[in-house]
Structures are given as C-alpha cells and as structure tokens.
Design brief:
six-stranded mixed β-sheet, 3 domains, DNA ligase i, domain 1, binds adenosine-5'-triphosphate, OB fold (Dihydrolipoamide Acetyltransferase, E2P), alpha+beta, 37% helix, D-amino Acid Aminotransferase, Chain A, domain 1, 598 residues
Length: 598
C-alpha cells in the first residue's frame, strides 16, 4: 500500500471521535493490507506506525530527534527545493540560519510539527509504499554515535523530499513522538476481528492471544495471513507464550473482607503484597543468547510491557541460580537498606527509573526480587497450569539465595487465619496481602477473581478506602503563593470502559512544593495545543494547558461525592497526590465502573 493512502486513513482516524467508527475504519485498513497478500510483511510495520512507533511496545527504538532537529530538517528541505527551483546554490550559512529562524517562528504559530511539514510540502503524488517509509524511518532511528544527529537529519530530509504533505504530517509526528491517534490496543484487536468477520466475535480470542504474547504487529500478521474463519481460530488457539516477548501481567480485584474472599475463592495462597516495582523476568536460552542483537540474556518488563532491562543489571545473575536454561518469572522488585536490612518504600525503589542513575542507585539502593510466579520453563508454557503446580515448579528450578527470593505463602481456607495474615503484613509495613486461588491458571489483566487484595482499612491513606489512579489532563497557571511555579492546580480524570477520560477533580492543594514543580515539568513535556479527543471536560473546567493522556497519578481523598460539574459524575473531596505512577499507562487508570466498588 502506498504511504499516502495509509496517510489518508490516518487522517480519517484522526478526525473520527467515535470509537466504533475508528474500529470500522481500522478494519477496512487491515482488510486492504490483508488483500495485498504478497506484502504481508507490511502489516506489522503498519501496526507499529499506527501506534506512532517502529517496534512493538516491549522494545524500544527511539528516534532521538528533538523538534528543533526536525525543524532543521524542514529548513534544509525548503532551502534545497528553493535552490532546485532557482538553479542556484543557497547553502550558505547565512541563508540556512535565516531559514531556520523563519521556520521556528512558523512552528511557534502553528504549534504542531506535523501541520507545519504538511503546509511546507508541495502537493504531489508520492509513490513510496508503507514498507519503504518504514525502513527509512528505522534507518534514521538506528543511526547512532558521532555525527548521528546529522545523519538523522539528512535521512529525514531525503525521506520528506519524496513525500506529499499529508504523509509528511504523520511522518514528522511519528519522529517527534506525537502521533497519538488515541486508540487503545483493544480497539486494534476489535478492528482485526471486524476486518475478518465483520463483527467482534474473535475479539476475545485475539485479546487472549495478545495477552500471551504481547506483540500486536506479529499477532496482526499471523491473524491476517489466515484466509478463513477456521484457519483464524487455529492460529489463535495455538498462540503460546514465548520467552523474550512479555506476557500481559495478571492484576488483582478488590474485595472487602477475608470472609468474602474465602466464600468466593475457597482455597487460597496468601502472600505479602510488596510495595515495589512489578518486574517480569525473561531468561533466554543460553545458546540463543549470542547477543547478535546486542541484547542481554535476561530481560525485564514492567506491567506496561516496557523493556526495563537497563534498570536491573543484577538480573543477569539469575541464570546462576536456575536448574533450567530458560524461563519467565513474575516478581516484585523492592529496594532495601543493606545496613538495616529493611525493605524501602516505593519512592526509593523507583530511583532506578532514571537511566543515568542506575549504576549509582544499584549501589545505594540494592534490590531484592520477590519471585511469586513462573509462566514458562524452556519450551513449556505454564500459564494454563494451576497455581499449585506453578509454585511447585518454581521451588524446583530456583535455588535459594539472598537476592532472588521465592515468595512465601500461607495456604488456607479459613477467613480468620487470612485476616490475621493480612494484618500481620500491614504491621510489617507491607501493603497487606495478595490472595490467590490455588487451582486457577495465570490470567492476564484484571478480568478474573483469581487474585484479590483486601481493600485498605479506613483511615490508612485518607478516608476513602482506596486510592485512585487518575490521568493528568492539564493544569491551571498558579495564583498567589504558587505563581512562582507556574502551576496552581491540575485537572485529573478517570476512564470509561471505552477509555474516554472524564474529569473527577481539580487539585490545587495536597501537594508539596517539590511535587508541584515535578508535576509542572512532567506536564509541560506532554503539553498540546488543543483538548485531546479522548477527554470530556465541562467548559468551566478548561485548564490553561492541556496535556496528552500519559501521566498517571495516585490520588487519595476523603470522600467520593456526586458532581454535576465533573463529567465522571463524581468528585473527590480533599484529594491529594500520593505518588506518580510511572509504572502505569493511562489506559490502566481507575475506571468509573471501579468507583462503584469504592
Ligand atoms: P496498587 O496501586 O495497590 O499497587 P495496582 O493497580 O498497581 O495496585 P493491583 O492489581 O492492585 O495493582 O495489585 C497487584 C500489584 O501488586 C502487582 O502489579 C505487583 O506490582 C504488586 N505485588 C506485590 N506483591 C505481590 C505478590 N506477592 N503477588 C502479586 N503481586 C504483587
């Protein structure tokens, strides 16, 4: 498919407010891609580009090109075409810097590098197809080392010079990381089902397949290569966990009491709920790990499927403790103080998040990994086995040591015993218990009642029993005391089942000065000119600065009240920031449906 035809789909998707309409449009696009049988390799590339990336979510290949550098490329492009037109050489230093200045001024006016690129490029019929644009983009992203910024700019100039305006709009947005068409993985999976069956009948099976192997491009290619319903079912049913590709992590439901839990789950294993970072550990087979791709043998993924191998150099020691070659483990990493041997709070553990600080943090805040599950061993997937079997395997393959600790658990059918266990964990400064059904498989996401946590006791973190994970939607410029920070309050929202973000609070107190500063910095990086399409906000609550959906904050509050103003229909009384949830993406925020259970 020509990239300009693809860009027309992107334009339609961008202009469509309805999720259903998006699904239908995406389905039509997938169908066209599937019809071009000889070109099936373009399916994966198209999927990644739709998400504004070049590789699946669990890999990272960044362009490392700032808006400024893209503007430079545009300046160079304009000069080259002017020179072509006049037959002269306009590459003098003077001309170039003037050109850059004028482009910067235009950019400041438009505020969107994509629209600027579109405006600058002549209308023409570009003949590049998706795959060649994709390959050129990969080349630009992969350029590294000395002189690479220049190579990247040159690569971009050459690509843009072959494109029409609309294609350039999306190519430049992808390069600066501002594609954001605003649909979720779920919409893509629905669209795949729709493209083949004309309905969502295969959506659940597609979702299950994705949860086992979270690579959308690969799944779309496999799915669309099947030519009839029977073949598609076979593809999906045979989808299996693969070491090196993350499994979508299992999450907890909430229940009120130990009685309720035992009534629902019967026999359980209760474990401590550690307050650290969820880490899925993949140990690749030794012989396969000849590091051709420069990757480490042991890889780590967050609950958002992000590759965080760089954060945990100590994980390369895991194979030393294994009686097997390859495996996938589920774990929680928690910082500890070597002097006191005490576990540290989440804020200390998360210092690893900053790339340049890893080495230092590994010294000052060493980690313990509490391993609580095993999802595959060598060629054998284990996620459909029950928890008892998985725990047995874990015991057998992992040798005891101080750093990677197999999580202990209590097996019980007695609510009293469970309650005491939960309270003991709270007393130890942990987050209570995670309670897991003994005869249940590993089930991704929050769909099952196989893992449950007990709602927090009243008063622990504000009077509301649980905290909310909210999406930061924008902020208001400060007044009075806060003027110096440039932020006086911020707007947060929760999700509908269709991932629309509806407001629930405007928060102007309950933050320290440092938290306000940090919030402003993070929000500025996400600033956009217009209200993102997935937001629903009353006019009276329009913030001074809109931010794209990305940043998630954990909010405690005293009460949930009904609200005629907030589009969620509810408001928070005395909201306050507990922490930034860098480990969550916005689609993991609290939903309005979940609020019913608060
Ligand atoms: P919270 O905000 O309370 O951390 P959450 O939304 O991040 O909740 P939940 O599904 O409520 O996630 O709880 C599961 C999380 O608890 C896991 O993602 C993991 O990070 C953490 N955890 C700590 N100890 C365990 C354990 N023993 N078993 C499973 N998960 C654990």
């Amino acid at each position: 498919m020509l990239f300009r035809d693809f860009a027309n789909y992107l334009l339609e998707l961008e202009n469509t407010p309805s999720r259903n309409q998006m699904t239908v449009l995406l389905a039509e696009l997938f169908r066209k891609l599937a019809d071009e049988r000889t070109e099936l390799s373009q399916v994966a590339s198209a999927c990644y580009l739709l998400e504004g990336r070049l590789v699946p979510q669990y890999q990272s290949l960044e362009f490392q090109l700032s808006v400024k550098m893209v503007l430079k490329a545009l300046a160079r492009l304009e000069l080259t075409s002017n020179a072509d037109q006049t037959g002269g050489n306009l590459f003098g230093e003077m001309d170039f810097s003037n050109q850059e200045k004028s482009i910067l001024a235009r950019y400041k006016k438009i505020g969107d590098v994509g629209l600027l690129a579109e405006e600058m490029l002549p209308q023409k019929d570009s003949n590049l197809d998706i795959l060649s644009v994709y390959q050129q983009l990969v080349k630009i992203a992969k350029a590294s080392g000395a002189g690479s910024q220049d190579q990247k700019v040159t690569g971009l100039v050459s690509l843009l010079s072959e494109l029409d305006g609309l294609s350039a709009r999306y190519v430049t947005r992808i390069v600066v990381g501002k594609m954001r068409l605003g649909f979720s993985t779920k919409t893509m999976l629905d669209a795949l089902s729709w493209s083949a069956e004309g309905d969502k009948s295969l959506s659940t099976d597609l979702e299950l397949a994705f949860q086992k192997k979270a690579d959308l491009g690969q799944l779309a290619t496999d799915f669309l290569s099947a030519t009839n319903n029977q073949q598609r079912q076979v593809v999906l049913q045979n989808y299996e966990v693969q070491i090196g590709i993350p499994v979508v992590p299992q999450l907890c439901q909430r229940l009120n009491s130990a009685e309720e839990i035992i009534a629902k789950m019967k026999r359980v294993f209760a474990e401590a709920k550690y307050d650290g970072l969820r880490v899925q550990i993949h140990v690749l087979p030794e012989q396969k790990n000849n590091s051709q791709d420069g990757q480490q043998r042991v890889r780590a993924y967050t609950r958002n499927l992000e590759d965080v191998t760089y954060m945990f150099p100590e994980l390369q020691l895991v194979p030393k403790f294994l009686n097997t070659d390859a495996a996938i483990f589920d774990s929680e990493a928690v910082g500890y103080d070597p002097a006191t041997k005490h576990l540290l709070p989440f804020q200390n553990t998360i210092t690893r998040k900053r790339k340049h600080a890893v080495e230092q943090a590994a010294k000052t805040v060493p980690l313990k990994f509490f391993i609580f599950d095993v999802l595959a061993v060598d060629d054998q997937p284990l996620i459909d086995e029950n928890l008892r079997k998985r725990k047995d395997v874990l015991e057998k393959i992992f040798n005891k040591n101080e750093q990677f600790i197999i999580t202990k658990y209590l097996e019980t059918t007695d609510p009293k015993e469970l309650q005491i266990f939960h309270e003991t964990q709270l007393g130890l400064g942990l987050e209570g218990a995670v309670i897991k059904q003994v005869d249940a498989p590993y089930q991704s996401g929050r769909r099952s009642w196989y893992w449950v946590k007990i709602k927090e006791k009243q008063g622990q973190r504000g009077k509301l029993q649980d905290t909310l994970d909210c999406v930061v939607m924008g902020y208001f410029v400060g007044r009075g005391k806060r003027t110096k920070f440039g932020i006086g309050a911020f707007l947060v929202g929760v999700l509908t089942d269709d991932n629309v973000v509806k407001t629930i609070a405007k928060i102007g107190t309950g933050l320290s000065d440092d938290q306000f500063k940090e919030l402003k910095k993070r929000a500025d990086a996400l600033m956009v000119a217009d209200k993102p399409r997935v937001y629903e906000v009353a006019k009276e609550l329009t913030p001074d600065v809109w931010t794209n959906p990305s940043l998630v904050v954990e909010i405690a509050a005293d009460e949930l009240t009904t609200s005629p103003l907030h589009t969620a229909g509810k408001a928070l009384r005395f909201p306050r920031l507990v922490k930034f949830r860098d480990d969550k993406n916005w689609q993991d925020a609290t939903t309005i449906a979940e609020l019913q259970k608060f």
